[in-house]
């Protein structure tokens, strides 16, 4: 169901201390926003209504958390859920921050100085498999290579999805982008790990009888671990190889 425009969302977010009002001027300085800047920094990409980040961040004051979403219509609900979760525990939300940004352009908001130790990607839009669409997937190598800019070596990505195609493709996206898959499952709830926090979409898909797929991947050091080549670049390289092969064959052909 399409969510309606919420005219109260922006003013309420602008009055909230843990909402970043101007994320485009914070690249390289995110850690300084938090009460304890020295703590590990973790991101949730596409935090939606905030069920996950509100529970995770309020249970782990020893880490700092940032929740990204593209629209205020859901961020406002995340803001309220975070306030409620911290109030219930008698805590101040000083280790959490939410912001509105397009994750496909995340390098406008984050840079290599924002060393991040973990990313959570929960139920991102699956997009279709075709080449025009799949580049928008938040686990597409194009995206994963962007995340490498600010992820420390050894940092982890926790990924969950309901979508079979996206999951299967992601099993090859991660290694191509220089990540080692440490663990994966086609049925997360069969032996649900104690660290799992069910998100809004996870609850919805589970009620529909759809199995939840999940993996944990670790960033390998060094650019040499990245084998992904953009399709256009790959096509150029293959053309160049064909041309070279043809010129090598030509002398024989004249004999
Ligand atoms: C299917 S919902 C999942 C929400 C939540 N993670 C959950 O599991 O319930 C996907 C969320 O990602 C956000 N999103 C999709 N594409 C995005 C992008 N390029 N940048 C930022 N947020 C995005 C959407 O607004 C939406 O809230």
Mean pLDDT: 95
User: What is the CATH topology classification name?
Assistant: Rossmann fold
What structural class is derived from the secondary structure elements? alpha/beta
Biggest sheet strand line-up: 3-2-1-4-5-7-6
Q: How many domains, in number, for the residues?
A: 1
Shape: globular
Main beta-sheet strand count, sense and barrel state: 7 strands, mixed
- The CATH H-level superfamily is Vaccinia Virus protein VP39
Report on the architecture of this protein.
By secondary structure, the chain is of the alpha/beta class. It has one domain (9-228): Vaccinia Virus protein VP39 (Rossmann fold, 3-Layer(aba) Sandwich). The chain is built from 8 helices and 7 strands. The structure holds S-adenosylmethionine. S-adenosylmethionine (SAM) is lined by residues 46-48, 68-71, 74, 102-104, 122-125, 199-202.
Question: Which key terms come to mind for this protein?
Answer:
alpha/beta, 35% helix, 255 residues, Rossmann fold, binds S-adenosylmethionine
Please give a quick description of this structure.
This protein has 255 residues and is an alpha/beta fold.
Task: Write the SSE topology.
Blueprint: H1 9-14, E1 41-45, H2 51-59, E2 64-69, H3 72-89, E3 96-100, E4 116-122, H4 131-134, H5 141-148, E5 151-161, H6 164-176, E6 179-185, H7 200-207, E7 213-219, H8 231-254
Parallel strand pairs: 1-2, 1-4, 2-3, 4-5
Antiparallel strand pairs: 5-7, 6-7
The structure holds S-adenosylmethionine.
